[in-house]
Amino acid sequence: MDNNHNLFSKAQQFIPGGVNSPVRAFKGVGGDPLFIATAKGPHMVDVNGKSYIDYIGSWGPMIAGHSNEHVLAAVHAAVDRGLSFGAPAEAEVTLAEQICNMIPSIELVRMVNSGTEATMSAIRLARGFTNRDKIIKFEGCYHGHADSFLVKAGSGVLTLGIPGSPGVPKAVADLTLTVPFNDLTCLENLMAEVGDEVAAIIVEPIAGNMNMIEPLPGYLEGMRSLCDQYGSVLIFDEVMTGFRVALGGAQELYGVKPDLTTFGKVIGGGLPVGAFGGRKDIMDYIAPNGPVYQAGTLSGNPLAMAAGSAMINLISEPGFYTYLSGQTQKLVDGLQAVADEAGVPFSSCNQGGMFGLFFTDHKVTGFNDLKHCDEDKFKRFFHAMLEQGVYLAPSAYEAGFVSSKHNDDIIEQTLTAARSAIMA
Ligand code: PMP
User: At which of 285, 315, 345 does a domain end?
Assistant: First the structure.
């Protein structure tokens, strides 16, 4: 009896496409998505009882492994105090203070319920602050599903080949200008033309929604000076990279200070949380201090705040990122060796607990380089790994995530699976 297949058939009767978020649907690789029953440490178990080493980590949050005992204990304790108050509570202050202390560019931070809410609110704030309407984003970057961002976006939008989504009014999409990632000249030229009308440049400082692409040296610095020159707000979307590539996120790694930053994933410890924060003079434009409206019935939810704080405590332990980065490095080095031995063109990218895999020997520095990657090879590799109990992101355009529970044994098991999967 295939419980998974039965559940997916039933899900399709009641849920569009059988999933509540398109990237889960295996559209990029074919086949039925896995329905998960339980998860612990580096493993997830599907409804047929098969166990997988998980390299998705709920798309980022599970940096300390699934069902981490410290996070669970914090949530259990919070449950007993009450699920939601709709009034301020200490847990919100605790998490906000942790974030502000950890990231020098954040003077004030506002909690929301998802990454999309964080980016959407940050853009509204930047527009209100500058009194300008246009924004610039980069081809292949994904900032959630708010109207302004579904223009040449990455992630599921890219996997499904949707250049712009129906339902987004043209008048809104026209305000989102796009340029290729990692091409500073292109950005300089655009800013020379329209810089005075640009409210914000929003960027994933490491692009993680078109596989994983690091910024070229000087690129983020160039963006910073253009924003200073034209009075535009620089927004780093660190929903994925925040607390993932380093404790202080990509801004710490590259030493570039944005005006606003958006967070999600890790700061919720697995519960629905997003946040945006940054310069006090800008953040003071948000209601109730200022005129830019933003709100949320469940924002700062006590369970989510407890999970987030427990997670921040865990990742603040000395040596956490050194170990995590080391394990990610072992994984990508091991996969490179496996591919080299098999004579398969392959390259990779990694920072902290985040990695990208490419079936090409070209150096991938931009969206167009992804065309050189062998997507069919990725699909075969993905399924062969899945068969052997290794769960990679089901798309050639998604980054992968390692947790602190991916110990040497887990990495070795992954590489053993890869040795045969690479021949697929
Ligand atoms: N920004 C980035 C960089 C993301 O990777 C994502 C989600 N993958 C989002 C925003 C949107 O976050 P959410 O799915 O929580 O709305």
Answer: 315
